[in-house]
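2024-03-11 09:14:02 INFO queue: dequeued item Zinc-binding dehydrogenase, len=346
2024-03-11 09:14:02 INFO validating residues
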Amino acid sequence: MKALQLTALHQPLALVDVPDLTPSAGEVVVAIKAAALNHRDVFVQQGLYPGIALPVIPGSDGAGVVSAVGEGVDPAWIGREVVINPALNWGPNPAYYTPQFKILGMPDNGTFAEKVVIPVTNVYPKPAHLSFEQAAAVPLAGLTAWRALITRAALSTTSQTPDRVLITGVGGGVALFALQFAVAAGAEVWVTSGSPEKLDKAMALGAKGGVSYKEPDWHKTLLSKATQGNAALAKAGYFDVIIDSAAGPDFARLTQVAAPGGRIAFFGGTTGKITDVQPSVVFFKHLSIFGSTMGSDAEFAAMLQFVSTHQLVPVIDSVRPLAEGQAAYDRMNAGQQLGKLVLTVE
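2024-03-11 09:14:37 INFO prediction written
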């Protein structure tokens, strides 16, 4: 079968022939119809991810059709359209994963291939309203956003009093899913981005407003807009829930814009160490700050159900054939994408 393979760090992916796959007990083979990139894939290529073992077929996200089953797996799975949960071996504790936890695509071969072998417990029926390309864009980013927003930050999906939500860096895949989930849940959502185009897209998806984080005092501008110039409300803080992927020095500003009792969840650290946070702001405002990574099997199922119930469609930047995978990597590395980068497999 054909696959995109990474054989050396800092080198382009190569489309190669690799041996066909046979499922072991409890496994299925999925004939991939579409796969999608995540920043994790680029980080692996750049040697910026722990435990890299080469050669490897990257790719965590994928959707396709079950083509074979291993011993102990119901043959009725064959021919079903499925989406893959890339979080392997989370385990029984909903609060934290097991030492055996890993993400599909490193060290295990992933979805940038004509086929992938995966435990049957990690395949789920594809939401009927989504194409294979759209479904492939959901798994890793959707799961990460769901756990950060719903589980960790405790955004209610049924609240009669909507939370006020801030999502930073809204051009990224996880941030866009967080935006879509929060809007569908009835929250009042505001965003930040360094791109006017991405701010406009967020507004089209239901955000009430946004500001550029490139402004020196973006947090003050944001509070003024969100509170409609109410100085007392701005001073207290406005946002009940904040979802962040950057961390870094600006994290301190998130504690300033958070409302009393606010919850801040972050799943990344693209701008470095968190600095300059004033403890008094955190404890006097009774803020809760959560770290978050991926999610459990139950969260993946709940996230897919929410996507189906609300007929959500992920934002896709572009679709390319598998052979042009390196071009998608280059686009992501340059920060040019708005939404998910998808690869199709003929």
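2024-03-11 09:14:37 INFO annotate: The chain has eleven helices and 17 strands.
2024-03-11 09:14:38 INFO item closed
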